[in-house]
Known about the structure:
The protein is 52% helix and 5% strand. α2 crosses α6 (75-85) and α2 (10-21) packs parallel to α7 (92-102). The chain is globular and about 35 Å long. By secondary structure, it is mainly alpha-helical.
Amino acid sequence: MKTLTGKLNETRLAIVKETFQSLNLVEGSIKVNDLVDSANTSKHPRVVDGTTTLEEFIALFRSQWDYLQGGNVTEDEFIAFYEAISTNMKCDKELTNRLKFAWGKSTEEPANV
């Protein structure tokens, strides 16, 4: 995955790390179930516009972490996830806004910047 997407720049890496550290960590990782529960899934654009149901989106989001042994997400795995999806975001501000909204740190829905 990293060879296709590349590494996050310093600004993006900092916001991804800050977001991860704000979650309910136990010994530096978070259980997949707790990660899914922490996400603002009901406000995802695909759920809001009816493209997918909340249950379908939660199942899809959860499936992205199924490869993990032990059911815990580490900071490195969280970073790798955002390395893969942040390539579609034009600027650092867009990633920052999306992270804050996705993890309940902002109630303002992000616009494409």
